Amino acid sequence: MARWFESVAVAQERARRRLPESVYGALLAGSEKGVSYQDNMSAFSELGLAPHVAGAFAKREQSTTVMGQEISLPVLISPTGVQAVHPAAEVAVARAAIARGTLMGLSSFASKSMEDVIRTGARTLVQMYWMGDRDYMSRFIARARAAGAVGLIVTLDWTFSHSRDWGSPHIPQTMSLREMARHAPEALRRPRWLASYLRTGRLPRLTTPNLKQPGQRTPTFFGAYGQWMGTPPPSWEDLAWLRNQWDGPFMLKGICRVDDAVRAADTGFSAISVSNHGGNNLDTTPASIRALPAIAEAVGDRVEVLLDGGIRRGSDVAKALALGARAVMIGRAYLWGLAAAGQAGVENVLDIMRTGVDSTLLGVGRASVHDLVRADVLIPPGFERRLGVD
Fold first, then answer.
1. Angle, nearest 10°, between helix axes 21-28 and 177-188?
2. Radius of gyration (Cα) for the chain, nearest Å?
3. Which of 86, 170, 183, 277 is catalytic?
4. For 344-353, what is each residue's pLDDT tens digit?
5. Which of 141, 304, 333, 378 is the most exposed place for a label (fewest CB within 10 A)?
């Protein structure tokens, strides 16, 4: 209980105190001025709830189904890249997902291989980018299939807008002796984080084992990033080809516009995530929750609509569901839990989400997450952004 925390805000503060400044800064950063990053969170604060005072249900249900998988709460682990906040990284997160009955999203830029993560028993959605040529992507999909992935995610909401007006930390390509000397002072100021790595006998490795090709060395994060940057962006015909390479559930992540959501449904994707990449996309893109209602209205009967971006509490989850999402995906929230207390910290964050959803269901008088409706949320005038609507 001494390591337990009661809110994501507390997990974030513990992560800030535990992590070297540059590692924490990398988690916090949004693109350019950070307008989208801030709007993702502040938009939820603009939404109110409409509680009842009597007639609440004594038992409330949160289980749902996403991409053919039953989960115990409408919160998924969003794929995030190299998780240097903790030595166990994605493996610890996967075990937390198992313990709390939800799905694990695994980034292609992860620091642990898909085989190692799926070997934990976690039901894993393997994420990929449009990068390399078609043969390269076909091999990646074949590897995910052989490893036992239950579904795929293709992320398209990562742009070339990678600058930070207020500065972002220097992230080395590799942990050379020179880089270790450069980062030594801040690491020494965080002895618990440093000791956790020293006990494993290795320092953080900024490599991407899921993108390793036969007979080649494991690429560094920036090496893989460069390959992605050098790949021409896909057309909808390219995405139709990609969808046809996988015969199971396939999510397209990064939708902000109604017209793109319609094209995704037409192309055969089974799910979409309304997302601006946590504010790391094109800055001043509206908060995901502002774009959600119009997208859910347009395609919610054709594809599963999820949302990510700005989720910090269970009431945020409930608001997203009331506005048309089937479930949400969390990123920074569980990374702060991972940094604060490893697997237990991720479980703690998922428990916070579950408790918050339950409290909201109780307050608005709903027996199930499936019963949440728009009338449960107070939406101020001008809140929604109907992008891509004629």
1. 90
2. 20
3. 277
4. 999 999 999 9
5. 378
